[in-house]
Amino acid sequence: MANPFELCGRVAVVTGANTGLGQALAVALAAAGADVALVGRSPMDETAAQIASLGRTSIAIAADLSTVAPIANVVRQVEDWRGRLDVLVNNAGIIRRADALEFTEADWDAVMDTNLKSVFFLSQAAARRMVARGCGGKIINVASMLSFQGGIRVASYTSAKSGLAGLTRLLANEWAGKGINVNAIAPGYFETNNTRALRADPERSAAILARIPAGQWGKPDQLGGAAVFLASSASDYVHGITLPVDGGWLAR
């Protein structure tokens, strides 16, 4: 029986692939056999080197997804490179922290534009190509614990990630019949740039760790298995879920 988790011959796109969760997701997909287009604002040489060490190939596509302007070019470059686009992982995201009474319009718009608006329009562009090819595909959104909870001091981030969970369901409803699986992964508290401020705050860090049954912050490479599952044929009948990978946080 063929391995249902194998991604050989598939082309994946991972946004925000320079470091942290995005890098781990890209490397995990490559380890399963995919070639990976790395999309981001910063150099992605380290990610590319890790993928090369696995015997897979990658291409780096410079794009600032704070606007929708680069989206058409991203999809075009991927198709020029490999002639297809099978998997899209919408990982790129930013966060802004301030009390809700002080939160600025600029911080609201910056997060919503990157974390929600660009995700929709990149998904739309990828799905159009998947439909045109007639071979379907997989779209994986990177959600958050704040897709389920409110949090504090991150008004636009919570709103965007809650919206992303809803968008995942909406797109699954519309595109499942077209052979496109749309799902999301919700990382718990991982050691990334986005959580540096929390980990540096002794009280907040202690409170977070006290609630995680696993008793530790997640490591980025612990997220890859969920992405491989949702990118592979093993998940062909899975549509519209937001899968927590959280050390048991939501079970507490």
Secondary structure class reads alpha/beta
Number of strands: 7
Overall shape: it is globular
Provide a count of the helices. 8
Average pLDDT value?
96
For the terminal residues, how far apart are their CA atoms?
38 Å
CATH fold label: Rossmann fold
Please give the radius of gyration in angstroms.
17 Å
Beta-strand percent range: 15-25%
Q: Could you give the order of strands across the largest sheet?
A: 3-2-1-4-5-6-7
Q: Give the helices and strands as they follow along the chain.
A: EHEHEHEHEHEHHHE
The CATH superfamily is: NAD(P)-binding Rossmann-like Domain
Task: Return residue spans where pLDDT drops below 50 for at least 5 consecutive residues.
Answer: none
Which architecture does the CATH hierarchy give at level 2?
3-Layer(aba) Sandwich
Helicity level, as a percent range? 40-55%
* Domain tally: 1
User: Main beta sheet, described?
Assistant: 7 strands, parallel
CATH class: Alpha Beta
Question: What does this protein look like?
Answer:
- The protein has 252 residues and is an alpha/beta fold.
- It has one domain: Rossmann fold (3-Layer(aba) Sandwich), CATH 3.40.50.720.
- Helices cover 42% and strands 15% of the residues.
- The chain is built from 8 helices and 7 strands; from the N terminus they run E-H-E-H-E-H-E-H-E-H-E-H-H-H-E.
- Strands 3-2-1-4-5-6-7 form a 7-stranded parallel beta sheet, with helices on both faces.
- Helix 1 (20-31) links the parallel strand 1 (11-15) and strand 2.
- Helix 1 packs across helix 8 and helix 4 packs parallel to helix 5.
